[in-house]
């Protein structure tokens, strides 16, 4: 009898956080620092900061395939092959063969099932959303209105920015509100020329990309063991300097230092256990991914931070007499309004001149061009807008693969810097659409018996109209700078998921009849469950979303603890 | 669109470090995995190996710095051919090796060898079509890639800076070596 009581006690915490990625790390930090005993459940394997970044210090010749993923590994890491996965980093990307999903319409689901999740492989461009982003749905009668406004997030943006460490420069733009910054990274000579030309001829500001890399570490950064960026740009292998922000380098160490953090790995959350009488969650049921053992853990409050698709899948899979269609799904909005940013469209150019200009170091970041369409007096025949990331760099030896010639002169030429080139890639806002969705397969399961995710979403006519402007405006700016051989591209294979900014599927809103979460990311109809990753996003903005997820998580954690203390949960 | 089509189209869009032939390595979903990929067995005979070494050294010869053979490029090409390419691309490569051997590459004088390769390059450029890959493209790119990612190639031919520690815009002198930051992987 005593044994059972003790076992139950050992599996009971104040709070459970599902997922250890960029928002799970923040939930763990905030909840432990406010005095709660927190269990973090990570579905993937354990990675230890620094010691498990096994390829971080390897040189190119130390890789059997010199960085290229082999034919066999490419099949296993199918979705991740499009952008980021390489021989030195493929272990940070989820194996699609072991973790299958279904594409009713094409969708690339790029994941990181390990400690830190996608915070080890993110692009690290970090921007505040602007005032309009939180009002556009209401103004245009699309989706539902956000239950919060920019002003609600300002103190939380400021709070998380300081801890994250974002390099960048204050510009005073409404369209791209300033953060709290560390010093910006440098622009190259052609980039400075580009910025000046576009400002003069087109009156568009171009800013240095704001990236979550420490350029001047502050005491609270070094206190958790982080150091300055070394400009190696090997980030996706894991950063042994802790220079870029990840939950492994920053939030989890902060949570651990409270002595109130427990992390269990290989723990696939199958479902939330509901207390039918109280209409509250009691805990979660978990499958060990290696042993298949099923265990239960209990807590007063649950934070779902499993990534947009992961968190919503857990809600969908948590069926009960009260919630036959998934926990909190009275609105039938679970899985709907799946959004991403559309990209793989833009412009490029060759740059003549600047032969004696170069750069020392490898910069993990680029320029950023803030949205200028449908902003101020500009009006287009589509809704919302787009921004660009891009920059100028000198071609290196790799140009030799396609440049004619061979022999001693050819060899010598390849040892010297090649011509400058510039490329701009647009990131466009995708509108919320209830028919862009995912659901759980009724018959196909993975090897843990969990239903596979079925993606059924695509870009809209609005997105396709926007893509034309992305190409033309990109070309216009490159031409304004006098660059040569300007070409545009719009890849026909671009589709949802490639942006790795999956958002929506458990949207926030004022009305429980039309939304899943309230203004504190709390499930309307199950108050002790919070979802603070991308699932809650009501619209997508056109700027990268992670900073907003982090601000929402810190805000929700603060609220949850206050509600716990007031005995409202 | 199936996976193979989708990936090859996106790959072409990405451009960047590696060009079409190398990216075509991923054009494989309709193919079976060659058995030697699993066993690690070689797919080349001695003559084929000699042709690879000769061509690689002609592309990147030993000068005041090491050449392709010094840098271990032939062995790299063999590994990549085995692990990175489909059966159909492997076949294009093996046919190309056979043709060069048939034209007497291994017994030709240095000048004749250069002439043979010039013809090969001219033909490859003239017949280049989207979605196809030539022997010349493959061996050229694999040689350049293998050399400039090798320890000997990097340390002798480039300014190797594994931990730059800073990023700044600078001026360089004419003829100055390019930097190698080790981030091509």
Automatic annotation (TrEMBL), chain A:
Signal peptide: none annotated. Pfam families: GMC_oxred_C, GMC_oxred_N. Keywords: FAD, Flavoprotein, Oxidoreductase. InterPro entries: FAD/NAD-bd_sf, GMC_OxRdtase_N, GMC_OxRtase_C, P2Ox-like. Residues 432-552 form the Glucose-methanol-choline oxidoreductase C-terminal domain. Its cofactor is FAD. It comes from the Bacteria. The keyword Flavoprotein applies. One of its GO terms (molecular function) is flavin adenine dinucleotide binding. Residues 230-341 form the Glucose-methanol-choline oxidoreductase N-terminal domain. Belongs to the GMC oxidoreductase family. This is GMC family oxidoreductase.
From TrEMBL, chain B:
It comes from the Bacteria. InterPro entries: Gluconate_2DH_su3. This is Gluconate 2-dehydrogenase subunit 3 family protein. It comes from Spirosoma pollinicola. The lineage of its organism: Bacteria, Pseudomonadati, Bacteroidota, Cytophagia, Cytophagales.
């Amino acid at each position: 009898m005593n044994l059972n009581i003790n076992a139950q006690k050992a599996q009971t915490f104040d709070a459970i956080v599902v997922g250890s990625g960029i928002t799970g790390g923040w939930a763990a930090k905030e909840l432990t620092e406010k005095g709660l005993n927190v269990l973090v459940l990570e579905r993937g394997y354990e990675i230890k900061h620094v010691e498990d970044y096994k390829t971080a210090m390897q040189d190119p010749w130390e890789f059997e395939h010199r960085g290229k993923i082999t034919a066999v590994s490419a099949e296993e890491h199918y979705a991740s092959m499009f952008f980021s996965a390489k021989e030195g980093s493929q272990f940070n990307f989820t194996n699609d063969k072991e973790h299958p999903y279904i594409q009713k319409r094409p969708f690339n689901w790029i994941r990181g099932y390990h400690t830190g999740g996608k915070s080890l492989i993110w692009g690290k461009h970090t921007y505040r959303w602007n005032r309009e982003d939180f009002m556009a749905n209401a103004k245009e009668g699309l989706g539902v209105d956000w239950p919060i406004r920019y002003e609600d997030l300002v103190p939380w943006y400021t709070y998380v920015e300081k801890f994250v460490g974002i390099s960048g420069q204050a510009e005073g733009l409404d369209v791209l509100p300033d953060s709290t910054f560390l010093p910006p990274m440098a622009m190259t000579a052609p980039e400075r020329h580009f910025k000046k030309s576009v400002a003069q001829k087109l009156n568009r500001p171009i800013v240095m990309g704001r990236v979550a890399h420490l350029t001047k570490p502050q005491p609270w950064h070094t206190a958790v063991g982080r150091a300055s960026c070394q400009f190696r740009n090997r980030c996706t292998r894991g950063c042994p300097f802790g220079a870029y922000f990840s939950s492994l380098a920053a939030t989890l160490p902060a949570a651990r230092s409270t002595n109130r953090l427990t992390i269990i790995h290989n723990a696939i959350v199958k479902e939330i256990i509901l207390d039918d009488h109280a209409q509250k969650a009691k805990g979660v049921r978990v499958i060990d991914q290696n042993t298949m053992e099923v265990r239960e853990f209990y807590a007063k409050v649950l934070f779902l931070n499993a990534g947009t698709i992961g968190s919503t899948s857990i809600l969908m899979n948590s069926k009960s007499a009260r919630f036959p269609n998934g926990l909190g799904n009275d609105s039938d909005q679970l899985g709907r309004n799946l959004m991403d940013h559309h990209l793989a469209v833009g412009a490029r150019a060759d740059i003549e001149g600047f032969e004696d200009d170069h750069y020392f170091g490898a910069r993990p970041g680029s320029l950023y061009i803030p949205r200028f369409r449908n902003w101020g007096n500009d009006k287009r025949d589509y809704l919302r807008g787009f921004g660009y990331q891009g920059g100028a760099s000198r071609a290196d030896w790799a140009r030799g693969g396609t440049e004619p010639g061979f022999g001693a002169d050819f060899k010598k030429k390849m040892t010297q810097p090649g011509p400058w080139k510039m490329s701009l890639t647009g990131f466009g806002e995708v509108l919320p659409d209830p028919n862009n969705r995912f659901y759980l397969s009724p018959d196909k399961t993975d090897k843990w018996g969990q239903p596979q995710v079925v993606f059924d979403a695509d870009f809209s006519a609005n997105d396709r109209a926007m893509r034309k402007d992305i190409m033309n405006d990109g070309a216009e700016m490159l031409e304004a700078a006098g660059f040569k051989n300007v070409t545009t591209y719009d890849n026909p294979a671009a589709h949802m998921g490639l942006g790795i900014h999956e958002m929506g599927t458990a949207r926030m809103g004022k009305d429980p009849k039309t939304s899943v979460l309230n203004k504190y990311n709390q499930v309307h109809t199950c108050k002790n469950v919070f979802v603070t990753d991308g699932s809650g996003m009501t619209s997508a903005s056109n700027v990268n979303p992670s900073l907003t997820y982090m601000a929402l998580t810190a805000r929700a954690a603060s609220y949850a603890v206050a509600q716990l203390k007031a005995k409202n949960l | 669109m199936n996976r193979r089509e989708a990936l090859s189209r996106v790959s072409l869009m990405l451009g960047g470090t590696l060009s079409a032939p190398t990216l075509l390595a991923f054009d494989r979903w309709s193919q079976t995995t060659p058995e030697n990929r699993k066993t690690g067995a070689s797919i080349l005979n001695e003559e084929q190996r000699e042709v690879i070494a000769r061509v690689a050294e002609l592309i990147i010869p030993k000068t005041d710095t090491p050449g392709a053979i010094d840098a271990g490029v032939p062995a790299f090409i063999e590994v990549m051919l085995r692990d990175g390419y489909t059966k159909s691309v492997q076949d294009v490569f093996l046919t190309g090796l056979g043709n060069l051997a048939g034209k007497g590459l291994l017994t030709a004088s240095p000048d004749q060898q250069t002439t043979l390769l010039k013809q090969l390059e001219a033909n490859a450029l003239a017949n280049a079509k989207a979605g196809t890959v030539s022997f010349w493209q493959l061996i050229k790119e694999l040689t350049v890639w293998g050399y400039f990612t090798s320890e000997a190639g990097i340390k002798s031919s480039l300014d190797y800076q594994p931990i730059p520690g800073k990023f700044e815009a600078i001026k360089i002198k004419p003829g100055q070596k390019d930097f190698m930051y080790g981030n091509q992987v």
